[in-house]
Design brief:
This protein is mainly β. It has 3 helices and 15 strands. The strands form 2 sheets. A 13-stranded antiparallel beta sheet has the order 1-2-3-7-8-9-6-12-15-14-13-11-10. InterPro entries: Acyl-CoA_hotdog (IPR042171), AfsA-like (IPR047757), AfsA_hotdog_dom (IPR005509), HotDog_dom_sf (IPR029069).
Length: 309
């Protein structure tokens, strides 16, 4: 049965801000989802031509997971949905925009489903993205669903941060992190060249699309991308391969320190950077990003886009 997506299924208030538009159940725990990327202005311009931002894949995974969980697996709309790990691999050439359709089909398989009673608690989502019958990317992620009451109990006083303004600290120069606008910078200077402080801008409507009591995961991924860009010293960084583990919530009222290091790779045509985040002396996320050679380095126009980058 073919069904149209609704904003509450993917926790988005603006219909124009929704990636999955409709879906069809193919068999138990397998679905075909249509993704709308025609409205996404998140394009990367390179000497090889315009490309869709591969980190759109990172956002497609949680949105399609939420869609299926709410619409087909019985998860109430008011439950909290948290991704604990996520990875993808994209084809840089397939990301090319020139003359190709912007409509993407996402094949979704749900596995490792656990329930407490009748309520879904955990699931793994594996996705395959194709465009014009060409493989665009593959990816997967693990999510946990938590009831609104349990979430409030778990977060306790941290819920008071919901919607509270956070002082905006000065960022690094936009050019250092592949950005054109100061407001799109999510890194501030640290205590050494390979360290930065996370710059939280809760007024940024792309980075914070709704009030939150903690830093959204996509902000952390954008911080990882910007740290990789600064580490390589290139104009920007095209993360065609990415894996991330979110270890705990990143709070809004305490400094989060971002560190990056180059990782040796046997393939000279790629560059891999490992990024970690620490807050209050504990690791909060770990992310590894791999980019093609400099011939595919890109320059971006800023975060007046669909994604945080």
């Amino acid at each position: 049965m073919h069904t149209t997506s609704r904003g509450e299924f993917v926790h988005r208030a603006d219909p124009a801000d929704i990636i999955p538009t409709d879906w069809t159940q193919l068999r138990q725990n397998r679905f075909s989802v249509s993704a709308r990327v025609a409205c996404l202005r998140s394009l990367l311009l390179s000497r090889a031509g315009a490309r869709h931002d591969p980190m759109l894949v990172a956002e497609t995974i949680p949105e399609t997971s939420m869609l299926v969980a709410h619409a087909e697996l019985g998860v109430p709309l008011d439950e909290q949905f948290v991704m604990w790990d996520l990875s993808y691999s994209a084809d840089s050439e397939a990301l090319t925009v020139d003359g190709l359709s912007s409509d993407v089909t996402v094949d979704v398989v749900c596995s490792d489903i656990t329930r407490r009673g009748s309520r879904l608690r955990n699931l793994r989502t594996t996705v395959v993205l194709t465009r014009d019958d060409r493989l665009l990317a593959t990816g997967s992620g693990t999510a946990r669903c938590t009831s609104a009451l349990a979430y409030r109990r778990m977060r306790g006083e941290r819920m008071e941060a919901l919607g509270r303004p956070v002082p905006l600290i000065p960022g690094v120069h936009p050019r250092l992190v592949g950005r054109a606008r100061t407001e799109d910078v999510v890194l501030a200077p640290g205590n050494r060249p390979d360290q930065w402080q996370l710059r939280v801008n809760t007024a940024h409507t792309t980075l914070f699309r709704r009030p939150n009591d903690h830093v959204p995961g996509m902000v952390l991924l954008e911080a990882a991308r910007q740290a990789a860009t600064a580490t390589t010293g290139s104009a920007a960084y095209l993360p065609t391969d990415l894996s991330v583990s979110f270890l705990r919530y990143v709070e809004l009222d305490s400094p989060c320190w971002i560190e990056a290091e180059s990782v040796p790779t046997p393939d000279p045509s790629t560059t891999t950077i490992r990024v970690t985040g620490h807050q209050d002396g504990s690791p909060v996320f770990r992310c590894t990003l791999t980019s093609p050679s400099r011939e595919l380095s890109v320059a971006t126009a800023g975060l007046d886009t669909r994604l945080a980058g």
